Amino acid sequence: MKLIFVGATHEVTGSCHYLNACGKHILVDYGMEQGLNVFENCELPVQESLIDYVLLTHAHIDHSGMIPRLTARGFRGQIFATEATADLCSIMLRDCAHIQMQEAEWKNRKAKRSAEIAPHEPVYTMEDADAAIRRIVPCVYGQEIELCEGLKIRFTDVGHLLGSASIEVWATEGDITRKIVFSGDIGNKNLPLIKDPTLTEEADYVVMESTYGDRYHPGEHPDFAKELAAVLQETFDRGGNVVIPSFAVGRTQEILYFLRRIKADNMVTGHGNFPVYVDSPLAVEATNIFHKNEMSCFDEEAMKLARVGINPIAFPGLSLTITSEESKEINFDMVPKVILSASGMCEAGRIRHHLKHNLWRKECTILFVGYQAVGTLGRALVEGIKEVKLFGETIDVRASIKSLAGLSGHADKDGLIEWVEGFKEKPRRVFVVHGEDSVCKNFVECLQAEHGIKAYAPYSGTEFNLLTNKLEYEAEPIPVKKKVRTVSDVFTRLMAAGQRLLAVIRKNEGRANKDLAKFADQVNSLCDKWEL
């Protein structure tokens, strides 16, 4: 029974953990790396075609974004996630595939103007995303689910995003049972719309995030609607726009919740029914999914509005833009407005066009409402960069750059400690992941010195034996080197298909000789065709 740490070790994105138990190969999350990556990740311990299950904590791309690549490389197992996560993945993975395909197309057009020969291929295609979505098994919060003999799981609402969960895994080999709890991303308390995190009482081992393990949100719960209203009033009085880079799923809906209250309570004066644009097709679809899952995921405050027929995230003056033509028209209208657009870290999407049109205007405000990873444009703007390059053009940063402090989907240090101290007995060991390098180290020290919890922050590739409670391999950090692409991604995909074929052959050992002979003839026929 072994646990191997693959991604989001001493880094915040690219979450992935491998569990080998009861003869099964299991991944907990398989996320995409975003922003600046400091350390190299190890390869998956087994071929994609041999993976039996993926357990998904939530739909954010840094936890789910590489799952379609599994299907592209032969994965044919099941993906277990909550019902709301399944709904969100159906749009988010397709959206991510669309972005991958667009970027590959752009790189190929650019390559034609240079001496570059090898074509750029997307990380995965829309067909790969669709194949992954078809393998998702929607699960209900709190229900114990038997995966196979010796393995069962349960999802618990952890209050980070619609459908987000910590995952309890019970693994039994012989007469020994170990319980491993994967925290996923632990939510902040008192968020609008969704419920507060639910604690888990028992665990032998815990794998927990530490994104904000070195900082605290404001002492008293801020009135975010009041703070947002003040930013709107000040900016509109100057004649400017408030541009909000916002994650399409989760944060956009929270901001809409505050804007509904601001309008209902007339908290901004002198600007009539000011317009609000949600410029993200993904955010529009996600908002509909929020409505669909309100009974199972909304908190009591939001449900009070819903029960009396008030949509908590809709109001007069709200426009949802879908087409690129509608998006372009927003910046030709000089009426002061709110523009909500993705991506939340300003790395891609329509937000970059809105920044191009508004960053240089001193009357405007760029308002950040979420975590900005190291190496992203959003982080650079928050840290005070004076000029940026967008679409080949240098733009001076004259707009006011602000953040809504404390508006975070992640628990702060106190919230993380409250969650890990929710276990009735201290776990045998707590593995700290999903935090920047210094944060992981400091949070481990805090858990050990101040709370008597045996904690450890593994680097990618570290292997731990859950039966013996011992580290079998302690990986060293490997700094990221600039990668040189020498092999076509299509050829890599072909190699993966060959590995899958070998895996299928192994799985068929013991079948009737007649069937195996037919299979061998089919393989030989295929080889004969391509050798010619």
Overall residue-averaged pLDDT value: 91
How are strands sequenced across the largest beta sheet? 6-5-4-3-2-1-22-23
> What is the makeup of the main sheet?
8 strands, mixed
Low-confidence stretches: 483-488
Count of extended strands: 23
Dominant shape: globular
- Into which percent range does the helicity of residues fall? 25-40%
The CATH superfamily of the largest domain appears as Ribonuclease Z/Hydroxyacylglutathione hydrolase-like
Count of individual helical segments: 16
CATH topology of the largest domain: Metallo-beta-lactamase, Chain A
The N- and C-terminal alpha carbons lie at a distance of 46 Å
| Total domain modules | 3
CATH class of the largest domain: Alpha Beta
What is the CATH architecture term of the largest domain? Answer: 4-Layer Sandwich
Describe the structure.
With 532 residues, the chain is an alpha/beta fold. It has 3 domains: 2-216 and 409-473, Ribonuclease Z/Hydroxyacylglutathione hydrolase-like (Metallo-beta-lactamase, Chain A, 4-Layer Sandwich), CATH 3.60.15; 224-403, Rossmann fold; 489-531. The protein is 34% helix and 20% strand. The protein has 16 helices and 23 strands. It has helices at 61-64, 67-72, 83-111, 126-133, 224-238, 251-264, 281-292, 294-297, 300-307, 324-330, 351-358, 377-382, 413-420, 437-451, 489-507, 513-531, and strands spanning 2-7, 16-21, 24-30, 53-55, 78-82, 136-139, 145-148, 151-157, 165-173, 176-182, 205-209, 242-245, 276-279, 318-321, 338-341, 365-368, 387-390, 393-396, 400-403, 429-433, 455-456, 463-465, 470-473. An 8-stranded mixed beta sheet has the order 6-5-4-3-2-1-22-23. A 7-stranded mixed beta sheet has the order 7-8-9-10-11-20-21, covered by helices on one side. A 6-stranded parallel beta sheet has the order 14-13-15-12-16-19, with helices on both faces. Helix 3 (83-111) packs antiparallel against helix 4 and helix 3 (83-111) runs antiparallel to helix 7 (281-292). The longest helix is centred in the first third of the chain and has 29 residues, at 83-111. The chain is globular and about 80 Å long. The two termini are 46 Å apart. Residues 483-488 have low confidence and may be disordered.
